[in-house]
Structure to design on (357 residues):
């Protein structure tokens, strides 16, 4: 008998697609976005997967997200392009940007595609892993969907978590996939801790008095901290210039908090890059060379008390295969939330027998 907290991948995807469709999203778009949202959970990015459904539905209901966008290329050269997301669900514009970047990389060696008038699109790993699976390298970055960080040494909230991701092919089942926020913790992790009633570790946020803040319910009273102090601040500004300003998208005080404001267009900026190793004279040797380097790193003697060395992406493929086979086990708070969203949308709850609901 299956755990009532576990749901088959196709069932969860069908529910998410139905919830989006009930809020005006076209069926084909709803299916695509639902597939990407569930894919995030399959690969272990729970804070940026189905957990975000409530936020997306709120923006659809509030009018800040266009349920029927006309996504198109606004500017293009042989190696570059800018996609206008028409304020639609961010996954649609970002998947279009990823696919176009890969097409350009196959043709001319590199594809760099920016996005303007986008929205939150889940984890960036969704938009770089396919490059590695196609024996290319991938890069993606985004301006965060709300400002939670002041400039280093300042107090005005002008910067988001501004994530960045990289991928590369290698021999074996796990490509190199590195996806991180430029803050010590992503806001999604803090929101899941609030949902589950857990405190934040010290060092993630500070209050306006500069002292550690550990209550996720008080997150609006403080500041997220950048990784590496001024270095993380500089990196997040660079991402803002490339993903925001370069694309004609929001950065700085123009960024709309997509959770608090559900009626305004966010003009979220992102970019996706694909690099074809063949264009750099390395032919088909990149995966083998990378595998040799990674093998040396994994063979490094661990420090006392440390686990063996791992590379970003290690174990993701087998874990994903297991989840596809046996289903996804969601935490009780998320199961309750999805059941509530189902009731609000007039749908059958995805966890009807769950006692936590």
């Amino acid at each position: 008998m299956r755990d009532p907290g576990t749901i088959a991948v196709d069932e969860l995807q069908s529910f998410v697609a139905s919830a989006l469709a009930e809020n005006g999203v076209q069926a084909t778009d709803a299916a695509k976005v639902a597939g990407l949202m569930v894919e995030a959970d399959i690969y272990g990015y729970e804070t940026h997967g189905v957990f975000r459904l409530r936020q997306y539905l709120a923006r659809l209901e509030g009018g800040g997200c266009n349920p029927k966008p006309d996504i198109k290329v606004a500017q293009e050269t042989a190696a570059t392009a800018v996609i206008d997301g028409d304020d639609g669900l961010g996954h649609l514009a970002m998947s279009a940007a990823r696919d176009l970047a890969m097409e350009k990389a196959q043709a001319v060696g590199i594809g760099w595609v920016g996005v303007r008038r986008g929205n939150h699109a889940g984890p960036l790993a969704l938009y770089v892993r396919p490059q590695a699976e196609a024996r290319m390298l991938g890069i993606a970055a985004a301006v965060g969907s709300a400002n939670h960080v002041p400039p280093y040494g300042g107090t005005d909230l002008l910067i988001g978590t501004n994530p960045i991701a990289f991928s590369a092919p290698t021999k074996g089942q796990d490509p190199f996939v590195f996806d991180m926020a430029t803050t010590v913790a992503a806001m999604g992790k803090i929101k899941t801790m609030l949902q589950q009633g857990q405190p934040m570790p010290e060092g993630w946020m500070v209050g306006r008095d500069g002292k550690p803040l550990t209550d996720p319910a008080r997150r609006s009273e403080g500041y997220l901290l950048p990784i590496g102090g001024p270095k993380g601040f500089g990196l997040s500004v660079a991402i803002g210039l490339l993903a925001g300003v370069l694309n004609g998208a929001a950065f700085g005080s123009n960024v709309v908090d997509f959770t608090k404001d559900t009626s305004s267009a966010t003009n979220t900026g992102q970019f996706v890059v694909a690099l074809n190793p063949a264009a750099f004279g390395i032919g088909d040797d990149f995966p083998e060379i990378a595998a040799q380097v990674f093998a040396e790193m994994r063979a490094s003697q661990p420090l006392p008390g440390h686990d063996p060395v791992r590379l970003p992406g290690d174990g993701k493929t087998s874990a994903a295969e297991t989840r596809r086979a046996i289903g996804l086990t969601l935490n009780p708070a998320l199961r309750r939330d999805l059941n509530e969203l189902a009731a609000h949308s007039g749908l059958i709850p995805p966890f009807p027998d769950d006692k936590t609901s």
In short: The two ends are 19 Å apart (CA to CA). The first strand starts at residue 6 and ends at 7. The first helix runs from residue 9 to 22.
